[in-house]
Design goal:
Strand content: 5-15%
CATH topology of the largest domain: 434 Repressor (Amino-terminal Domain)
Shape: globular
Distance between the termini: 37 Å
Helix content: 40-55%
CATH superfamily of the largest domain: lambda repressor-like DNA-binding domains
Strand order of the largest sheet: 1-2
CATH architecture of the largest domain: Orthogonal Bundle
Order of helices and strands: HHHHHHEE
CATH class of the largest domain: Mainly Alpha
Largest sheet: 2 strands, antiparallel
Number of helices: 6
Length: 118
């Protein structure tokens, strides 16, 4: 593989931080929808002003670890839940499913298979 190809595949810290911000925002929004919350509700539960919540959602402000803990408590989820990327299930039934890798137990190959888990 050429050096330019390798360089294309390496993510900078800024790229990783941006992706993490997206994951956190998506997970907060999904949890808000599940609970029927809006940004004003989150404001009352976290103490973070609605305008600052909006700025975080729009990437104008970054989440601090303290923010993430406040959102997790307000939404009754774990910090890990907010930090874990979620993907849509292939059948589209549950948009909050996440993909996990499990070891194949029905074969002798030890090959890893993808399985959808809620």
């Amino acid at each position: 593989m050429s050096k330019s190809r390798i360089a294309e595949r390496i993510k900078t810290p800024a790229m990783l931080e941006s992706e993490l911000q997206d994951v956190i925002t998506k997970n907060i929004k999904h949890s808000m929808i599940d609970r029927g919350y809006n940004q004003k509700t989150l404001e009352s539960l976290t103490g973070i002003r609605q305008g600052n919540i909006s700025k975080r959602f729009n990437k104008d402000l970054h989440y601090s670890l303290y923010d993430i803990v406040l959102f997790a408590k307000a939404l009754n989820v774990s910090v890990i839940d907010l930090l874990t990327p979620k993907e849509k299930a292939p059948n589209g039934e549950n948009s909050y499913a996440y993909k996990v890798q499990i070891l194949c137990v029905n074969c002798n190959t030890g090959k890893r298979e993808s399985q959808w888990k809620n």
